[in-house]
Specification:
about 220 residues, alpha/beta, Rossmann fold, seven-stranded mixed beta sheet, 7 helices, binds S-adenosylmethionine
């Protein structure tokens, strides 16, 4: 088989399953990482719902939500929609399209809701407009998959790990974005929580896809 058609064959079934073009959504997730999330969610949401921390404009929700929909499952998507530190005006990842009414911060909620509507995922994706910390208070639901892609400060990453991994069922999947084993490639907090989880003895590791790490909770 010709090399190009081989690549096309591996991508086309996914594209067919996605209701809208992921490139039409603002976000930081690479398509290969999105494909990996889609494929993992297709497997793990057979056993229960998924929760993500960090909705932004809905790119990861498109991949995970489309897979969850196939299993009639829910994706809970948490974000206060005020952006992370590095997304504020004047910071490295600021996008002027997202400026809020006060002009001093950002608001990603309208973009997120529009993505969910366009993708026909309103019955699958349950938006939780709140900080991760507030959403975790009194949370009862078991989760089959948790995707951590929220604040990247050490405090935020640690909170996301400790608040949510305890709700994963045995055999469930913890996915963490922006894990950079080499400090020259990017910030450390997601790598710190990934290391903590690995060393806890509660998880076995799946191969990483770019900066996306996957850890399965032991039965
Ligand atoms: C890197 S973006 C998420 C990208 C998204 N997963 C995607 O695929 O495009 C991080 C998001 O986390 C949110 N965030 C940061 N700290 C948070 C916190 N403590 N609680 C809830 N959301 C938070 C920000 O508002 C921002 O939208």
């Amino acid at each position: 088989m010709h090399a190009c058609s081989h690549i096309f064959d591996s991508i086309s079934p996914l594209i067919m399953k996605l209701p809208i073009d992921p490139n039409s959504i603002k976000g930081f997730l690479d398509h290969e990482e999105g494909m990996a999330l889609f494929n993992k969610a297709l497997i793990y949401t057979k056993r229960g719902p998924c929760l993500e921390i960090g909705s932004y404009c809905g790119k990861s929700a498109l991949y995970i939500g489309s897979a969850a929909k196939e299993n009639n499952q829910t994706l809970f998507s948490i974000d206060h929609h005020q952006g992370s530190e590095e997304q504020q005006p004047g910071e490295e990842y600021f996008d002027p399209d997202l400026i809020n009414d006060s002009g001093k911060g950002i608001n990603t909620l309208p973009y997120f809701l529009e993505t969910i509507k366009r993708a026909k995922l309103k019955d699958t994706v349950s938006p939780i407009i709140s900080s991760s910390e507030e959403a975790s208070i009194n949370w009862q639901q078991d989760l089959a998959m948790v995707f951590v892609d929220g604040g990247h400060s050490l405090e935020a990453a640690m909170a996301d790990y400790f608040l949510w991994h305890k709700h994963l069922i045995p055999g469930g999947l913890l996915a963490i974005h922006d894990v950079f084993p080499n400090p020259e490639d990017g910030g450390r907090p997601p790598f710190e929580i990934y290391t903590l989880a690995k060393e806890s003895g509660y998880y076995k590791e799946w191969p990483m896809i770019k900066s996306l790490a996957f850890l399965e909770k032991l039965e």
